[in-house]
Write a structure and sequence with these properties.
disordered C terminus; alpha/beta; single chain
């Protein structure tokens, strides 16, 4: 404004203060001896000084109060005398406060009009730039630029700043280094992650860099954190562009979420078809290949138990994010349980999921791990093994259970594909089920109670609410029907395996009877 020839303005004091780039929010005209109560900071004040002209003390107080209020500067209309007020000038020099003179023939409205036009043009430029940035970000999303493309497009409109995009766990997923040297990404995320738990946005200093960070939600859950750093804090118009960057990242994350949901749906349908066995192995093999899983490579199945307070999408996203893209995997739901088919024989994937749940602060997440498999036809027993492990309660310091430590139930869970399992179950307990069906003799229930109480007749009879003689009579009938006498102890394991297979659904009740 001082350089506009038609205004004929002359700067008297505060030339070095102008280089602080303090923003002019508005221009105000006042003849009050103390207009500070009506100012908010950032105003340029114009005055003729008619009220304070006869008192040097009032002139100094006038400048002091405006400076302390945050006024940007004073424009003094000299009137016919042609000289600024001495007390005002002296106080302004002491404070290095911008003070300029306005010739008498220049109306104050000419300055207010110029400032108003300038601010409007500046706002229009900001809005235009924001629209350009918005279009650039959308182009990146539509053309498959991914999160890296969105960050790069956004950073082009804020070249003085560097951009870092983290996922929820603090892993760097996209970056763009501007003209500013950033602090170490891990240290930067550590500095802002704790306050972001209670706030949507944080502004702080990290290793000499001015950092602004905000969470990105899709739609209500935190999916990412955007961090922008520079040698200075962002100004108002730059914060508007920062909001545009957050919007673009949110759009890209929403697109990725839709892709993930569709893929999980397809995996869920595949798991359902595996369990119902309506397709042969060749069809399952083809569908796995379409989902970018090599059916010829070894794999394992993980079943991840979900606590009630954790949503299915949140847990599925945690599995996908914690394993990343380095290891081929499928995540889907069957019968209320979340499964992950991962092409790895290592325990590292299950440990990574448990660790991510711990970082998230989720309690009650349990990971069951099957034996490594190599054939598509073994997918169902692997699912059974993983689910059995995940359903077992674990101690607080153990969130992962391998099927090898589960014992007899784990051994039986993997027998589904064995052709003899159905025949074995029918031979051992089929006659008991048939007898119970015909006359309600409760023989199968009696065998369960007898084994459950360690073959102690007294405890088993008490559990069944029958006399010990009645228990002995029933065990004798079991002996006659099956040829196995539980009272001699030679057939404990036989009945135990048959009952476990029966309970796990490896032989259906109709098949047994």
């Amino acid at each position: 404004m001082l350089r506009v020839p038609s205004l004929h303005l002359t700067l008297v004091t505060g030339s070095s203060r102008l280089r602080e780039r303090r923003s002019v929010r508005w221009v105000h005209i006042s003849e009050l001896p103390d207009p500070s109560p009506w100012l908010q900071g950032g105003e340029l004040l114009l005055t003729t000084g008619c009220v304070i002209g006869q008192s040097e003390r009032m002139q100094r107080e006038f400048v002091r109060r405006l400076d302390e209020t945050g006024c940007v500067g004073i424009g003094f209309s000299m009137g016919t005398g042609g000289e600024p007020l001495p007390g005002m000038v002296d106080e302004a020099k002491i404070r290095n406060f911008p003070l300029f003179t306005i010739p008498h023939e220049v109306p104050l409205m000419a300055i207010t009009s110029w400032v108003s036009d300038y601010l409007n043009q500046e706002r229009n430029q900001v809005l235009t730039r924001a629209m350009q940035m918005h279009r650039a970000v959308l182009r990146s999303v539509l053309h498959g630029g991914g999160l890296a493309g969105v960050v790069k497009s956004s950073a082009a409109y804020l070249p003085e700043f560097s951009f870092l995009l983290f996922d929820y766990y603090g892993r760097l997923v996209a970056e763009h280094w501007g003209g500013t040297a950033l602090p170490d990404p891990a240290q930067a995320f550590s500095a802002i992650s704790k306050p972001l738990r209670d706030q949507e946005r944080v502004s702080t200093e990290v290793e000499g860099a001015e950092v602004t960070a905000a969470v990105v939600r899709v739609p209500h859950e935190v999916e990412a954190v955007l961090l922008v750093a520079g040698t200075r804090g962002m100004q108002e118009h730059e914060l508007l562009l920062f909001e545009q960057a957050l919007t673009g990242i949110g759009i890209e994350l929403t697109r990725l979420r839709s892709f993930r949901l569709e893929r999980r749906r397809q995996v869920g349908e595949l798991l359902d078809d595996v369990v119902t066995a309506i397709f042969d192995d060749s069809v399952i093999r083809l569908r796995l290949a379409r989902l970018e899983i090599d059916p010829g490579q070894p794999y394992q199945v993980l079943c991840v138990h979900r606590p009630e307070e954790v949503s299915e999408h949140a847990l599925a996203a945690l599995i996908e994010d914690s394993l990343g893209t380095a290891t081929p995997m499928l995540v889907g739901t069957h019968d209320g349980e979340l499964y992950c088919v991962v092409q790895s024989e290592s325990p590292e994937p299950s440990a990574a999921i448990a660790k991510a749940a711990e970082v998230k602060g989720w309690h009650g997440v349990r990971v069951g791990r099957s034996l490594p498999r190599s054939e598509v036809g073994e997918l169902l027993p692997a699912m059974r093994e993983a689910r059995l492990c995940a359903s077992a309660p674990l101690t607080p310091d153990v969130q992962v259970r391998d099927v090898t430590v589960v014992g007899v139930p784990g051994l039986v869970a993997g027998l589904h594909a064995h052709p003899a399992i159905g025949s074995f179950v029918r031979q051992v307990i089929g006659p008991l089920c048939e007898q119970d069906r015909r006359d309600g003799s409760r023989l199968l229930e009696t065998v369960r109670a007898y084994l459950r109480h360690g073959c102690r007749p007294g405890a088993a009879a008490s559990d069944l609410h029958i006399h010990r003689h009645t228990l002995s009579y029933r065990l004798e009938r079991v002996h006659k029907l099956t040829g196995c006498d539980l009272r001699e102890g030679n057939h404990f394991l036989t009945f135990g395996l048959a009952l476990e297979a029966y309970d796990q659904g490896l032989a259906q009740p109709g098949q047994v009877s």
